[in-house]
Design brief:
The complex is a heterodimer. Chain A is of the alpha/beta class. Chain A has twelve helices and 14 strands. In chain A, helix 3 (94-104) packs across helix 4 and helix 8 (220-226) crosses helix 12. Chain A is elongated. Chain B is mainly α. Chain B has one domain (20-260). Helix content of chain B is 71%, strand content 0%. In chain B, helix 8 (149-178) packs antiparallel against helix 9 and helix 8 packs antiparallel against helix 11. Chain B is globular, with a radius of gyration of 21 Å. The interface between A and B is large, with 53 and 37 residues.
């Protein structure tokens, strides 16, 4: 059974009268990648700053690998952090930067050099080790930041918006790196991001914050199920539009049928939610069956509300109203 | 990218938090000051300034209106002013500058205690003073202020400079710890220095003037140098002039030490 690496109990953090994080409680196991989601101002960065001992909690407590938050220096030995707005000394080389941080974590000079070389190779920056950081691209700087977060072989790693500003190739490299960190090191990763596709791709669990409070927690599949899809969108050949409409009207569980774009053959079928609850094993397959029975060719089929982003928007009340 | 593994040679668990974190910080900061353009440019500029001054004093009798002792005193006063102000600006930038460049957070995420981080930065900032004094020594020697006076002048300059540099670098650090804006930190620190430096250019007399000279660490230090170098008075006769610089160094360093324990990511007063 995986060990508990992070245990958070009722943590709150206020700035004056503004409560940025309220009564946060959760646990993280070793090797887990947990997505920390929330709209702007939800408290994600404050949560990371509190749990990484940069800010003290106003209330509550937490432990990292059994070390209580009353020993912040001991916690810092066990965590790695890529801050949201990580700056870099632009005149230093990547190797110097990592060597310096390895020394700050207690590595002797020779060991610090080995750590720096090894980590630069692992994040794909070996060839640029002796280039000054000002010549690095955004993606390279982010990877250097991840390498910095690993100099102390942490048990718990916080990554705040690691893919922000990266091109698709850079995003893919970063996500692969995050997976490797969790898989090969057994480290727990708390990934704060706005990119829900990233979360769906790498996270085993999700915590959604809104206005400083946890509003949902569970696996990605759990969260998706909370906002069950109730509408199907189907594209059929435009000349089959009318036949498709009448076929959908006869489908089991369908409460309402509409034409979205007759010229392009888009139809919608909204289900009766009570019927969906009673027939979870059939779900919206009745739409497909009705159309194939009526010999209507299906060009495309989508569920509205079936993605993590739909669940996120519904839960944080940011979706279109 | 290669596969990540805990067992890789370079990834073994590090020892506990370094007890010499301040030395690691200081070494890096010293490299930043002296191996980048900042330190060498300051030394170059200072050397040119002293070269011009000593050339005028030693070679061009028509242009020289000061005697050799006065010129030696002037060289040391300029060295003092330059050393203190540059150290002050370096320390005023130490924390608020890192805040602005967004590099402070990664430093605070290390297990090195806040006070050791501050100490490392302070040491790098005050390193300017001995380097500038070293640059000034040949110029003082070239002026030949008089038998035995060369050593007295250099030692007096060294002592006063150390006290004032430590005092003002600590002051700059305190301001920098509280300041959210680097420009504010630099301006406020420099303003305090200039305000305390201004009376050295004023004709202070009477008991009030004497009080100002003795209470203000800059005027007290400056007067001490003048008395020792120009008037050739003994240290024991003018020791009271060192009280203000000593107190300033002790108080600001003590305060900086206390405040550095509360060094935070954001500036301002904690709410």
């Amino acid at each position: 059974m995986a060990a508990t690496v992070l245990s958070v109990r009722g943590v709150s953090r206020s700035y004056g009268s503004v409560q940025a994080v309220r009564d946060l409680s959760f646990e993280a196991l070793s090797g887990e990648i947990i997505g920390l989601l929330g709209p702007n101002g939800a408290g994600k960065t404050t949560t990371i700053r509190v749990l990484s001992t940069i800010l003290p909690p106003t209330r509550g407590s937490f432990e990292v690998a059994g070390v209580p938050n009353t020993k912040p220096a001991d916690i810092r030995e066990r965590i790695g952090v890529l801050p949201e707005s990580a700056g870099y000394p632009l005149h230093q080389t990547g190797e110097e930067f990592l060597r310096y941080h390895a020394r700050l974590f207690g590595h002797p000079a020779r060991s610090a050099r080995e750590v720096a070389t090894s980590l630069l190779s692992e994040v794909g920056l070996a060839e640029r080790a002796s280039s000054i950081i000002s010549t690095y691209s955004r993606g390279m700087r982010q990877r250097l930041g991840v390498a910095r977060a690993l100099v102390n072989t942490p048990r718990l790693i916080f990554l705040d918006e690691p893919t922000l500003g990266l091109d698709p190739a850079g995003q893919r490299q970063m996500l692969a790196l995050i997976r490797e960190i969790a898989r090969d090191r057994g480290a727990t990763v708390i990934l704060s991001t706005h990119f829900l596709d990233d979360v769906e791709e790498v996270c085993s669990r999700v915590i959604i914050l809104n206005r400083g409070e946890v509003i949902a927690e569970g696996s990605v599949a759990d969260i998706k199920r909370r906002v069950a899809p109730s509408t199907a969108r189907v594209q059929i050949p435009p000349e089959m539009h009318d036949r498709g409409l009448s076929a959908l009207r006869g489908a089991a569980g369908v409460a309402n049928v509409g034409s979205i774009d007759a010229q392009r053959g888009w139809l919608s079928a909204t289900f009766d939610s009570a019927w969906l609850d009673e027939h979870p094993e059939i779900g919206m397959n009745t739409v497909l069956r009705a159309l194939t029975d009526a010999a209507v060719l299906i060009l495309s089929f989508e569920l509205e509300g079936g993605r993590l982003s739909d669940a996120f928007l519904a839960l944080t009340e940011e979706g279109p109203r | 990218m290669t596969s990540l593994s805990r067992s890789d040679a370079g990834l073994r668990s590090p020892p506990a938090a370094p007890s010499d974190g301040w030395m690691v910080v200081a070494a890096q900061e010293l490299r930043d000051v002296w191996l980048s353009a900042r330190g060498p440019i300051i030394v170059l500029f200072f050397s040119l300034l002293l070269s011009l001054l000593t050339y005028m004093a030693a070679a061009n009798k028509e242009l020289n209106i000061l005697d050799q002792r006065d010129t030696a005193n002037l060289v040391l006063q300029i060295t003092l002013g330059m050393g203190v102000s540059v150290s002050l600006l370096f320390s005023a930038d130490a924390v608020s500058g890192e805040r602005e460049r967004e590099t402070l957070e990664s430093l605070l995420l290390t297990p090195v205690p806040r006070r050791q981080i501050a100490l490392g930065k302070l040491l790098a900032a005050v390193s300017v003073w001995p380097v500038l004094l070293l640059v000034a020594v040949p110029y003082v020697w070239a002026l030949r202020p008089g038998a035995g006076l060369f050593a007295d002048a250099v030692v007096a300059g060294f002592v006063v400079g150390c006290l004032l540099t430590v005092a003002f670098a600590s002051l700059g650090l305190i301001v920098s710890i509280f300041s959210s804006l680097n420009r504010l930190s630099l301006a406020a620190s420099f303003f305090v220095f200039v305000a305390l430096l201004a009376p050295t250019q004023l004709p202070l007399s009477g008991w009030f003037g004497d009080l100002i000279v003795r209470v203000n660490p800059v005027t007290a230090g400056s007067s001490f140098l003048h008395e020792v170098i120009v008037k050739q008075r003994g240290w024991d006769q003018e020791f009271t002039l060192l009280i203000a610089p000593i107190l300033a160094a002790v108080i600001t360093t003590g305060l900086a030490f206390l405040i550095a324990g509360r060094l935070r990511l954001q500036g301002g007063i904690e709410r």
